[in-house]
C-alpha cells in the first residue's frame, strides 16, 4: 500500500504513525487517530471514528471532529447501515463523491440515529470516505471523513492515505487494547491483593477476638467483661437478654423497658423464620430513641438461653458476624457455666437447709454454716415464697424460679449481713442472718425492704407470676431457724387452706389464730356459724349496726367510753346495742368462756372475710 503513496504522503503517514505510537492510552490513541487523519487529508472538514461493539452488534462513535459532540455520541449504526455500516461489511474503503449519493445511503439509517446525525452536522457533506479498520481479517471499526465544501474533493491519493492510516490505526488500537487489558489485569490483581490483605487483617482480628474472648472465659472474667470487650473491639453497644426478658449484662445502663425487651424477643422469634435473620430491626426505645437492633440468638443443645442485641446501623460484615458468632458461643458457655455453678451452689444450700429442718445438726453442719457466712449465734429469721401456679415441667416457671433465687441472693449479699435462698418444689426458702447486735426495728425494716424489693422487681420485669409469702419469727440461734421455717410454712398453709387473697402473712400476726391452723376451713366455718350465726343472720335481715358495734367494742379492749366516741353515739346507745348482741347470741359477756368464744369467732370471721370466703351456711 505504501508503494501507491507519494513522498509527501509517506512523510504524513510517518508523522501519523509516530503520533499513534507515542501513547498506549486507548482513549488518547483513538483521539489521535481522528485528529491526525483529518490533519493529513486536506479535503477532510470533519470525521468520526467508529468502533464495533460485539455485545451490542453496533458501531459506536468514539471520537469526532467537526460534529456537535452531544448529538453524534447518540448515533448507533448496525453493520450494513448507512455509509459507515456498508464499509464495515465490505472491508474495503468506500467513496461517496456526491451529496445525492450520501443522502440516499444515509436514508437507510435508523430513525433515532438519523435525527441525531442531522443535528450534529451543519449540512450534508458534498463527499465522504469510509475506510474500515481491519485486524486479522476482521473489521473492528471505520474511519469516516466528510467534506462539507463543494470546492474540495477527495483524490485517489487521499483514499490511499486514509487506507494506510486505517492500517496504522488497527496496529495502534491493538497495542492500546493489549496495554489496557494488561493494565486492567494489573489493577484487578492489585485490587485482589488489597482484598486479601484486608481479609487477612479481618481474619486476624477475628482470630484475636476469638482468642481474647476465650481467655476472658478461662480467667473467669464474667459476662460483663465479655460484653464490654464486644463494645470496645467490635464497636457495637451490646445488651444480653435472658429468655425471660430481663437484661443479664449490658454496655448501656437500663437500655430497654420490659415491654421493649419483649418486642425484641418477639422479633427474634419472627426473624428465625426469615431468610435473613441478621437484618437490623427498627425499634423506638424510651431511653435511646429510634435505634436499629441486630439480634443474635444465644443457645445450646438444651434450648434457648437468650438473645444478644447489638445497636448497629446497617449490615454487619461477614467477618464481624463470624466473630460475633464466636462471641455468642462464648456467652452460651459462660451462661451454662454460671448455671452449673448455681445448680451446685443450690444443691449445697439445699442440703444445708434439709439438715437444719431435719434437726440433724452436728459439727459438720456448723462448718457448712461458716462457709455460707452463717454464725452460730445472732439474729435469724426466715420466710417462704410460694408460687400460686407452678408447673415443674414448664421451662418458663423453672427459669423464673431460678431468676428469683438469684435476685434474692444478690440482694442479701449486697444489703444484708448474710443469708441463703434455695428453690424447693414450688417454693423458695430464705434464711437471713442479721448483724449482731441489732435492734428489732432495724431487723424489721431490713426484712420489709427485701420483701418490697422482690415485689417491685416482679412488677418491673413484668414476670407472669403470683406469689404468697409466709414469714416466721426471729430467733437468736442458728438451729432455731428450724422453728422459724416451720412457722413460715404454717403461714403458707394458712394462706392456702383458707383461700386468703392477701399475699403476705407473718406468724406473729396470727395471734390466737395460729392455734386453729390444724383445723379445716369447714371446721372453722362451723365454729363461726355456731358462735356468731344468729347475729350475722339478724344483721343481714335487719341491716343494723350491731356487728360493727361488737367489732369496735372488742378492738377498743371493751372500753365503752372509747367505743362510744369512735362510733359517735351515746353511752346508753352503746349499752343497749351490746345488750341486744347478748340477747341474739344468747350469751353473757360476763362469762369469760362465752366471751372468749365470741371474741375468737369474730376474729376468725374477719380473717375469712379478708380471704373473700363466703360462709354460705350462715
UniProtKB/TrEMBL annotation:
Limits of the GAF domain = 25-183
- What is the species listed in this Swiss-Prot or TrEMBL entry? Alkalihalophilus marmarensis DSM 21297
Q: For this UniProt record, give its keywords in alphabetical order, as a comma-separated list.
A: Coiled coil
Q: Which residues form a coiled coil?
A: 175-202
PANTHER family from the entry?
CARBOHYDRATE DIACID REGULATOR, DNA-BINDING TRANSCRIPTIONAL ACTIVATOR ADER
According to UniProt, the name of this protein is GAF domain-containing protein
SUPFAM superfamilies this protein is in?
GAF domain-like
**What family does this belong to?**
Belongs to the CdaR family.
Matching SMART domains, A to Z?
GAF
Amino acid at each position: 500500500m505504501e508503494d501507491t503513496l507519494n513522498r509527501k504522503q509517506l512523510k504524513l503517514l510517518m508523522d501519523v504513525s509516530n503520533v499513534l505510537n507515542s501513547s498506549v492510552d486507548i482513549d488518547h490513541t483513538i483521539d489521535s487517530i481522528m485528529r491526525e487523519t483529518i490533519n493529513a487529508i486536506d479535503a477532510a472538514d470533519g470525521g468520526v471514528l467508529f468502533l464495533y461493539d460485539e455485545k451490542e452488534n453496533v458501531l459506536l462513535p468514539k471520537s469526532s471532529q467537526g460534529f456537535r459532540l452531544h448529538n453524534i455520541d447518540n448515533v448507533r449504526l448496525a453493520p450494513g447501515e448507512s455509509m459507515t455500516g456498508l464499509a464495515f461489511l465490505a472491508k474495503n474503503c468506500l467513496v461517496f463523491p456526491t451529496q445525492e449519493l450520501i443522502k440516499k445511503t444515509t436514508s437507510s439509517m435508523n430513525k433515532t440515529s438519523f435525527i441525531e446525525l442531522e443535528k450534529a452536522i451543519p449540512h450534508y457533506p458534498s463527499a465522504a470516505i469510509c475506510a474500515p479498520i481491519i485486524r486479522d481479517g476482521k473489521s473492528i471499526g471505520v474511519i469516516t471523513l466528510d467534506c462539507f465544501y463543494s470546492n474540495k474533493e477527495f483524490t485517489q491519493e487521499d483514499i490511499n492515505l486514509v487506507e494506510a492510516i486505517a492500517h496504522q490505526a488497527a496496529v495502534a488500537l491493538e497495542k492500546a487494547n493489549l496495554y489496557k487489558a494488561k493494565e486492567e489485569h494489573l489493577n484487578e490483581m492489585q485490587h485482589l491483593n488489597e482484598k486479601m490483605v484486608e481479609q487477612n487483617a479481618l481474619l486476624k482480628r477475628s482470630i484475636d477476638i476469638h482468642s481474647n474472648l476465650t481467655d476472658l472465659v478461662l480467667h473467669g472474667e464474667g459476662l460483663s467483661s465479655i460484653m464490654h470487650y464486644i463494645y470496645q473491639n467490635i464497636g457495637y453497644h451490646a445488651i444480653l437478654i435472658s429468655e425471660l426478658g430481663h437484661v443479664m449484662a449490658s454496655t448501656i445502663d437500663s437500655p430497654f423497658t420490659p415491654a421493649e425487651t419483649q418486642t425484641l424477643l418477639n422479633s427474634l422469634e419472627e426473624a428465625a423464620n426469615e431468610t435473613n435473620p441478621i437484618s437490623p430491626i427498627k425499634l423506638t426505645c424510651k431511653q435511646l430513641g429510634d435505634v436499629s437492633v441486630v439480634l443474635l440468638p444465644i443457645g445450646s443443645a438444651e434450648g434457648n438461653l437468650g438473645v444478644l442485641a447489638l445497636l448497629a446501623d446497617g449490615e454487619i460484615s461477614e467477618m464481624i458476624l463470624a466473630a460475633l458468632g464466636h462471641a455468642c458461643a462464648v456467652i452460651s458457655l459462660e451462661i451454662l457455666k454460671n448455671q452449673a455453678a448455681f445448680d451446685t451452689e443450690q444443691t449445697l444450700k439445699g442440703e444445708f437447709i434439709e439438715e437444719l429442718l431435719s434437726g440433724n445438726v452436728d459439727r459438720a453442719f456448723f462448718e457448712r454454716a461458716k462457709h455460707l457466712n452463717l454464725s452460730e449465734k445472732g439474729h435469724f429469721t426466715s420466710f417462704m415464697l410460694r408460687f400460686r401456679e407452678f408447673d415443674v415441667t414448664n421451662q418458663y416457671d423453672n427459669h423464673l424460679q431460678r431468676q428469683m433465687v438469684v435476685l434474692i441472693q444478690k440482694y442479701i449479699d449486697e444489703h444484708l449481713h448474710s443469708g441463703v435462698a434455695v428453690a424447693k418444689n414450688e417454693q423458695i426458702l430464705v434464711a437471713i442472718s442479721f448483724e449482731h447486735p441489732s435492734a428489732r426495728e432495724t431487723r424489721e425494716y431490713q426484712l420489709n425492704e427485701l420483701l418490697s424489693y422482690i415485689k417491685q422487681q416482679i412488677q418491673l420485669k413484668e414476670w407472669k407470676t403470683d406469689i404468697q409469702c409466709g414469714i416466721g419469727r426471729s430467733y437468736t440461734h442458728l438451729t432455731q431457724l428450724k422453728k422459724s421455717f416451720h412457722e413460715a410454712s404454717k403461714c403458707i398453709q394458712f394462706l392456702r387452706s383458707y383461700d386468703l387473697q392477701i399475699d403476705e402473712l407473718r406468724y406473729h400476726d396470727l395471734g390466737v389464730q395460729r392455734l386453729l391452723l390444724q383445723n379445716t376451713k369447714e371446721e372453722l366455718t362451723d365454729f363461726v356459724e355456731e358462735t356468731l350465726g344468729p347475729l350475722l343472720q339478724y344483721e343481714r335481715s335487719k341491716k343494723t349496726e350491731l356487728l360493727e358495734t361488737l367489732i369496735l367494742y372488742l378492738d377498743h379492749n371493751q372500753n365503752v367510753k372509747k367505743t362510744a366516741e369512735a362510733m359517735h353515739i351515746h353511752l346508753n346507745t352503746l349499752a343497749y346495742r351490746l345488750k341486744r348482741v347478748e340477747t341474739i347470741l344468747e350469751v353473757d359477756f360476763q362469762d369469760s368462756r362465752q366471751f372468749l368464744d365470741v371474741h375468737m369467732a369474730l376474729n376468725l370471721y374477719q380473717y375469712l372475710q379478708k380471704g373473700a370466703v363466703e360462709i354460705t351456711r350462715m
